[in-house]
Amino acid sequence: MKKQISAYLAEHKDEAVAWLSKTIKERSEQGLEKGVQKLVADRLEMIGLEVTTYEPGGEEFINHPYFCAGRTDFTGSPNVIGVWKGTGGGRSIVLNGHVDVVPAGDLKDWDDDPFSGAVRDGRVYGRGATDMKGGNLSSLLAIQALKKTGCKLKGDVVFHSVIEEESGGAGTLSAILKGFTADAAIIPEPTNMKIFPVQQGSMWFKITVKGKSAHGGTRYEGVSAIEKSMVAVNALLQLEKKRNDRITDPLYRNVPIPVPINIGKITGGNWPSSVPDIVVIEGRIGVAPNESLEMVREELEAAMNELDDDWLKIHKPAVEWFGAQWLPGAIKTDHDLTKVIMKRFEEVTSSAPVIEASPWGTDGGLLTNAGSTPAVVFGPGVTGLAHYHNEYIEIAKIMEAAEIIALTILDWCGVDEIEGD
Amino acid sequence: MKKQISAYLAEHKDEAVAWLSKTIKERSEQGLEKGVQKLVADRLEMIGLEVTTYEPGGEEFINHPYFCAGRTDFTGSPNVIGVWKGTGGGRSIVLNGHVDVVPAGDLKDWDDDPFSGAVRDGRVYGRGATDMKGGNLSSLLAIQALKKTGCKLKGDVVFHSVIEEESGGAGTLSAILKGFTADAAIIPEPTNMKIFPVQQGSMWFKITVKGKSAHGGTRYEGVSAIEKSMVAVNALLQLEKKRNDRITDPLYRNVPIPVPINIGKITGGNWPSSVPDIVVIEGRIGVAPNESLEMVREELEAAMNELDDDWLKIHKPAVEWFGAQWLPGAIKTDHDLTKVIMKRFEEVTSSAPVIEASPWGTDGGLLTNAGSTPAVVFGPGVTGLAHYHNEYIEIAKIMEAAEIIALTILDWCGVDEIEGD
């Protein structure tokens, strides 16, 4: 079986790479996902899965406490789900991946067209190559190799091709609410082939610090919102320290700041010679696997309410939560899925797997927490290339991940030997 | 003579107020000064002065070390100069004022149209009323009252109606280079009837602090330009303290920070979950009367070169000087012009004058330093209303200032009694 899979993958590599290139050319920033989802649906049909294509929506979905998106109308932005029913008696698995990609950014930074899908030097180039059309291909190839080599699995395999991961996971939430869950899940986000049983969650915050305007020549008549924002920034740094000091999970042993508070943006004042009366800080707070989003919100808000500054005690900074959020996720290191992936990784690569905690959120938090589908994140591609110019993925890693995932599915779902002939 | 002047002013108040209203309706933001300058030229002709209307230009002007403007082509933006030649043997005086006004800003903040020129409750409303069309009217009325009541002055009176004060004084610089200087000058900027023999200069700076980008989830891989900008801000506050500690001029006795460093604007980063790699700070540094602009530039640049931070020692912030600048100005408290204004103030208002140092720059710095024309700033109107919405000026103060200025001119220029009959 193992040899058959390996041989099947080797034979179908070139076709698969050409198809990946096609899915990158089919650009799929938010709102443009339809084209690539058609390609995915066609491929799932070709493999032989039951395919459901639908646009997320409905009251339960929009009003769900974990719903987070910049829109509520997903017309033209379908999810695609493929189901391969098992023969029964086995454990089911979800293979989840998103097709939405972040914008290309400044075109001047790119050597090629960002949507070239160029194939050279063993790599496929373009926005989404690493995050995560390459990883999705690993999952599809894994299923294809199992199905086409005649394997009969006991457990179901459910493939999620979702929208909206980059803005908070509405696509995966919808798939969960539609009942497309399983006993466990693999998400081939770009972990650089590391295994992430634990994923950091995160939320975005906006803090508005108020001062009092005055002419710069008599600045003592005003209160500088820039100076006051420094008090808030310092308090955020202290809060970060306090939050991280209490993290003991050994998976974070080598991580300098397991759940960082990143202050990403600052804007304040509008004239060099006026005292600035408003500063707005925007940032991202990491959420530890054992924390709820609510706990973290309360802790940050409390820190802004208790600033050690006479002005800010009266004029308390306003805290808003906006934009994206990702639930944290955690599955035990000794969970059977983790163990299976580790074993198969060693077999295929002849090296020991690296087990770590992810420094970013994925849809794994939703699958684990909202979908009762414990998720492990493991895939080809390098985080450092995601969201950057000249994004690419190594073809060899896609194929390696495909083989590891295929063998993991075999072990996890179980093979019905009687019908396997 | 004094009674005649007082009576003349009272008689001509209504006409003058109507004219002021007209000059406010004739909006004169940068580039739009032509219309109001025509009104001024006509009034100077009516009073009986020799009028020169010309557009500033020429190599000497554009390349002058004190030239500071956002443009080098002043087509359509004339200066207007009126000269009243004395009979000889007296001291000459410049009455300088600018016609350019700052933009109205957000129209929603205004109760009326910003260029209404509305007259009600003893006030004239609109952009430029206080800064400084009202003060200019005081000067014009002073000259008109002297001339029309038949007074023969020994010294020359030179009236400057200049452009570009709000962006660094190019209009006044041009008038100086054209030779329109005198033994002293009065500038009726809105001092709220205080006498400012000393004026703070100022310059605008821009400081760019660099960090290193990274994903917010692994922010320890980057260097936050926001955190590093706080080091720069703190150093600016320390520099401000050091600079002000050495100021001993008793005119600054009641000023908490004689020459402030105002940090007016901060912008940095572009994504909540990325480590910001650039922060730009814009501000204004006050220049003390005894300082040169060059000295102050060097001191601030040195402070940014010597920051106590390992990263910033290598990645030194870049300092740029941009936008407007105003030279400081100083004339002795016991200068004869100051003494004359003080005496005439007491006479007209029956109260003691307040002598202070101005918290902002005017064209007085240029007149004093580049034009050898020591300038005192004294005028109606309140600084707090300049550059703000619902700007207005009190008519009674315009008339009071006109009388004080007329009597000051009498004393300063001297009266030729023989020809005065």
UniProtKB/TrEMBL annotation, chains A, B:
Would the keyword Metal-binding be found if you checked this record's keyword annotation? yes
| Name of this chain's protein | Peptidase
| Family of the protein in this entry | Belongs to the peptidase M20A family.
Q: Which cofactor does it need?
A: Zn(2+); Co(2+)
Q: Does the keyword Amino-acid biosynthesis apply?
A: no
* SUPFAM superfamilies reported in the protein's UniProt record: Bacterial exopeptidase dimerisation domain, Zn-dependent exopeptidases
Instruction: Keywords in alphabetical order, please.
Output: Cobalt, Hydrolase, Metal-binding, Zinc
Q: Which InterPro entries match?
A: ArgE/DapE, Bact_exopeptidase_dim_dom, Peptidase_M20, Peptidase_M20_dimer, Peptidase_M20A
- The signal peptide annotation in the UniProt record is none
